[in-house]
Amino acid sequence: LKLFMPSPRRYVQRVFVTQLPSHLDLQILFDCMVNSPSSLTVTFDLKDVGMDYDRSLFGMKLSDCRCLAKSLENTETLTHLDLSRNALDDDKVRMLASGLIENLSITHLSLAHNRVADRGVRALAKLLDSNCTISILDLHDNQIHTEGAKALARAFRGNPCILSVNLRLNRMGDEGTKAVIESFKNSPTLERLNVSSNAAGAGTSQATVAMLRLNRAVTELDISCNNLGADNVASIRKALEVNQAIKTLDLRMTGARMDDELAVAENLRARQERRDKANILSGGSGSNKT
Known about the structure:
This protein has helices at 27-32, 62-74, 90-100, 118-125, 146-157, 173-183, 202-214, 230-241, 258-289; strands at residues 14-17, 39-42, 80-82, 108-110, 136-138, 164-166, 192-194, 220-222, 248-250. Residues 285-290 have low confidence and may be disordered. Strand 8, helix 8 (230-241) and strand 9 form a beta-alpha-beta unit. 41% of the residues lie in helices and 10% in strands.
């Protein structure tokens, strides 16, 4: 790596490492470049090992997290950090958080497909204060339960810049999912929220109805694969009618009646057609003026 990087180092902005079994100090990567990369995707992995499989070759170790945390404290240009599929648990995430809390450049953080549970999430929640720069947070396919969801919800309420949150495929339950949705009820910034497949229920439905009635910033909402119930989905459908900001609403596998699903799909399709027509007319008027 040291031999390869000197030539292109002035021009490289994004680094994708999909196989890294050696557990090298990632500070080497930052040191090799004139400016730190703006985007870093790293997976400690090894492909096509066959019968030579060794568990130690997969995932980040605590020492890897410690080294990366030190690098994150100093970088000023890194905006996108993706550490998906690295077998990160609570202790490793807490170590990473010690470096992330000093970082003021990262806006997109993905820790998807790991083993992050409530203790790790509480450490991440401390990053989401009023000085936070993270606007896109992806924690899908982890082990977040109710208490972790509540910690995130408390942090989201005071966060001034969050745009997108993905928490699907966790274990937040109805109480935790409800808390997350309620935290965004009056959010002026959130645009995309995904809480699908979290064993949510009636409480989440009520929180969704309240958010749809009050929030005009969210444009994409996914609450699919939760047992919401037919009557509750009907209430969500009615709330959608008074919310013209929503562009995408996923209600699959929520116990919805077929007519409610069709009505929601038709509502959203008609909205998209109106937007497309308005864009065409706007473009046409603009071209006539020129």
